[in-house]
Design a protein that fits this description.
single chain, 159 residues, alpha+beta, six-stranded mixed sheet, 6 strands, globular
């Protein structure tokens, strides 16, 4: 059985425990911020597939209408220095307040310096709404779920 199928066949409680294990690698204050932002994003996207990656550089949780990684709309991205909100097609979003960072051809992000407070700021909320509207795939009406997509054996320090 492939690693992907094994991950998909895990029970929700096992996945929750695994994700919590990724988060506790961070300093307590950073772990708290990650949990708070994740909770807010899960409330905003209750029908999303929550795709988790514990990679070399970042811990990432993407929110997608499908299980296809390239369909994600936004993602929480964390490293030892902070938490950000990444927009998959951020370069295509209007940004009247100039808050999006990055210069790639597709992705843009916002640093969540104040965690959920920044996430809920009207300018950030408007960008999230625009990203949902611009998404090629709509969210369904089934309850979302979490899947661990990738875990790197080697990682930069989280603390």
């Amino acid at each position: 059985m492939s690693a992907m199928k094994k991950a998909a066949s895990k029970k929700p409680a096992d996945i929750a425990k695994q994700v919590d294990g990724f988060i506790v690698k961070f300093e307590p204050a950073m772990a708290k911020r990650i949990r708070e932002v994740r909770t807010a994003l899960r409330k905003r996207f209750p029908n999303a597939v929550e795709m988790v990656y514990d990679n070399y550089n970042f811990f990432v949780i993407g929110y997608s209408p499908t299980e296809k990684p390239t369909d994600y709309i936004v993602s929480l991205a964390a490293n030892s220095k902070g938490v950000g909100l990444s927009f998959n097609h951020g370069a295509d979003l209007g940004d009247p307040d100039g808050i999006l960072e990055g210069s790639g051809s597709q992705n843009r992000f916002v640093r969540l310096v104040d965690g959920v407070k920044t996430l809920k700021a009207p300018q950030v909320a408007a960008l999230i709404d625009a990203a949902v509207v611009n998404s090629e795939k709509p969210f369904g009406d089934k309850r979302g779920f979490t899947v661990v997509r990738s875990v790197s054996a080697k990682q930069r320090p989280r603390r």
